[in-house]
Design brief:
Structural class: alpha/beta
Radius of gyration: 19 Å
Number of strands: 12
Largest sheet: 8 strands, mixed
CATH superfamily: P-loop containing nucleotide triphosphate hydrolases
Order of helices and strands: HEHEHEEEEHEHEHEEEHEHHH
Shape: globular
Length: 295
């Protein structure tokens, strides 16, 4: 069904909160809430990718998740709300791409796999430009990306959040009230774990389920001799998951091949390969799909 034919008035759901205006709502706010609901109801599953710590490879996990789901035949979109450090365009080979707008609709950028992508990175004049925005402006941009982007019918919308528990993850948790859950990314060492635990506490406070923890950079396997070195320790993410009573999805080793693939925007080629990292991530995706889809 096309966007212009789908409306809240024609929706068959009797429990949808967007069907009726609340007492404190202005006409403008009500209309915007209906527009947002109209977009989001066409997306089956919404997943947040979060971490309380920067530099743990969160965006790499989000981009790899999108690529892997597309390879499984799912219709996928990626929303990059890391406004100050948007790296999704580069990871998906879309750096320098332009977005277009028709009337009040923004068309997302598409990967060769058909993954729909929206990021503030597409709006920068140069890759060196800095975004200097306060909270209300950030909230407004995230709302616009959710309600004005032509996402269409998707099986998954992957939302890549910035590190921490500030404005951006709070805004998206409030705007996407029916999210399936959050994937929490960490590295093994204690200095990361102590911050990442706060992300789990955060999603619980905003009533978002924790789908699981991914421990990234868990050991380095030498490509020449096969020797494993735990550069940042190992097992910290799994111990945290057990301690906090959330699922553990798996441990990703440090793999130079994945680093090179991400920098070149060629994650698809890497993930379809036979490296230990690719095999491990395939298992993470399998567990996640089972948790979300029940199969």
């Amino acid at each position: 069904m096309s966007d212009d034919k789908l409306s809240c008035e024609s929706c068959s759901s009797e429990t949808c909160s967007a069907k009726a205006k609340t007492q404190s709502e202005t006409d403008k706010d009500f209309k915007e809430r209906q527009e947002l609901a109209r977009r989001m109801c066409r997306i089956k599953h919404k997943l947040f990718v979060l971490s309380g710590k920067g530099g743990v490879g969160k965006s790499s996990v989000a981009a790899s998740l999108a690529v892997s789901l597309a390879e499984l035949g799912r219709k996928v979109g990626v929303l990059d709300i890391d406004l100050h450090g948007p790296s999704i365009p580069r990871l998906l080979g879309l750096e320098g791409a332009d977005i277009t707008a028709v009337d009040d609709t923004i068309r997302p950028v598409m990967t060769d796999q058909g993954v729909k992508v929206m990021s503030v990175g597409f709006m920068l004049r140069t890759q060196d430009d800095a975004i200097i925005w306060r909270g209300p402006l950030k909230h407004g941009v995230i709302k616009q990306f959710l309600k004005d982007v032509e996402w269409g019918d998707l099986d998954y919308l992957i939302i890549d959040s910035p590190p921490g528990t500030g404005d951006e993850p709070l805004s998206v948790a409030q705007l996407v009230a029916d999210a399936d859950g959050a994937v929490i990314v960490t590295t093994p060492q204690a200095v990361a774990i102590s911050d990442v635990r706060k992300s789990i506490s955060f999603v619980r406070q905003v009533n978002v389920p924790v789908l699981g923890v991914v421990e990234n950079m868990s050991g380095f396997i030498c490509p020449k001799c096969g020797t494993r070195s735990d550069l940042f320790g190992s097992g910290g993410g799994e111990r945290m998951a057990v301690d906090m009573g959330v699922p553990f999805l798996g441990s990703m080793p440090i793999d130079p091949g994945m680093v090179l693939a991400g920098d070149a925007g060629e994650l698809q080629a890497y993930l379809s390969g036979s490296s230990p990292g690719a095999a491990t991530f395939a298992d993470v995706v399998k567990k996640l799909v089972t948790a979300v889809e029940g199969k």
